[in-house]
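Objective 1b: paired records.
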Amino acid sequence: MEPRFTLTDNEIGARFAKRFGTASLAIVQSPLPKVVREQVSLRVSQINGCGWCVDVHTKELAAAGEPAVRINLVAAWREATVFTEAEQAALALAEEGTRIADGRPGVSDDTWARVRKHYDGDQTAALVALVAQMNSANRLAVIVHQKGGAYEAGTYAS
């Protein structure tokens, strides 16, 4: 599978990508911890099968000092002992917010209560925005066949 299109090589695509990146600053500059942001981004990307985004977020977690066991177990977080209750709440929100079309009622009241127990209003807003934005990013990358493997940690830091 070869890449179909480089969005940023097109004027409209480049303008969109710039604004998409600017919107992400609200999330990056929020009080939501970086590790939680990356875990949520990784889990959404795993569900959506986005190789590029899985590559980005596994490498960003590693660069943030996360041990391999925690990175590797994001895919099976419910069956792992290495995540805090707060991280589990965020991962549950990521899954339920991503799998809306799978016959679920969206985000359950239980998951929402767990999120609100561990995250204040700003962090909750950032989590909701992150799940929505990662789903959008995954769709962009999957549609154009953007492949994973070449990302270098810190590329998007600026």
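Objective 1b, second protein:
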Amino acid sequence: MLETIRKRLTLLFSGTFLLLLILILLGVYFTTARLLDQTELNQLKSVSDRELFERIEHGEDRLIRDPIFFQILDSDGAERYARLPDDLSKKTIDRFVSSDTETQKLELEDRHFLLYQRNTDENGLIVLMKDISATEDTLQRLIAMLFGITVLSTLVLMGISYVLAGRSVLPVQQAFDRQRRFTSDASHELRTPLTILYSGIELLETEPLSTEGKTILSDLKAETASMQYLVSDLLLLAREGHPGPMSSLDLSTLVTQTTDRFRHTVVGRTLHLDVAPGLLVKGDSNQLIRLLTIFLENAVAYSDADIEVTLQQTPSDVRLMIADQGIGIPPENQDKVFERFFRGDHARHGSGTGLGLAIARSIAEAHGATILLESTLHQGTRFTILFPTP
């Protein structure tokens, strides 16, 4: 459980750091792109402000250096001078001239251009066009570099976050270990006197007693048995469902035999069994029997109708389903039923410790399984346990 918390904290820490890093890198990229674009535009504006175009007719167009191209239009829109790329269509430049935009980016095959236009003093128009392929290539390289930084930083941040998360849960782990040792020790210490008490009650039952005495003795025996059951549950919880030796076992046979034994304790209803043969899982047979028994006991306690037990194979897992047609679980309680000592409406079953489903979840987690709950009030409940395939 604490390892799960550590992983979640790792994701939280690394996700937060990574988000901040991405925001910073995005800021770097867009700021750099804006500066480069502004530098290119300033160069075009500088060229257009030199009033060199009046001297073009005197052969001084060499002052407009490549890769800057230009077009000069008079007040009637007629072209006076032009030096444009050979692969640039007239329609493309005409669309830009007729638009209201001052600048525009254009891509011709594998080259990129920046277009800029302004009015002249004679109500004409100057159009400048600069090859900015080198700038775009720089931005592409910047993207690749920032992506590499992001990937590398993600790995480093996850490692750092895992260490920090480990230090964060260390006090919790220590407190949890102390609580588990206390519960385990207390459970062990209680088992012996409870066993002696139960044996003494059984011995007293052989003695001649009044009717009232027999009733009191019967109540004491029942309460002692309940205490023994509670102590066993606490001991199992203290071990966090830690299984014994794990081995490959036939879950189909285990479910069939456990359900058949449980069938004899059910009166007035039917246990429907649908088990696919030969389904194997890796686990502890004793704990898996305890897991199934918990769900069967709950189904019997909360339902007077038939119970269905189904075991089937899917492409991703082995699914064990226990369904009843009982009172159901209210939606507000469905997230709480796996908590220790939580008991909802238990008027139907009278006694209970509220530990059964907590134990079931602990056993399932120890086997790498997941428990799903589907319940509708006054219609029934279905528990589905998803076992990983071995």
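The first helix runs from residue 2 to 48. Helices lie at 2-48, 90-98, 133-204, 211-238, 251-263, 285-302, 356-366.
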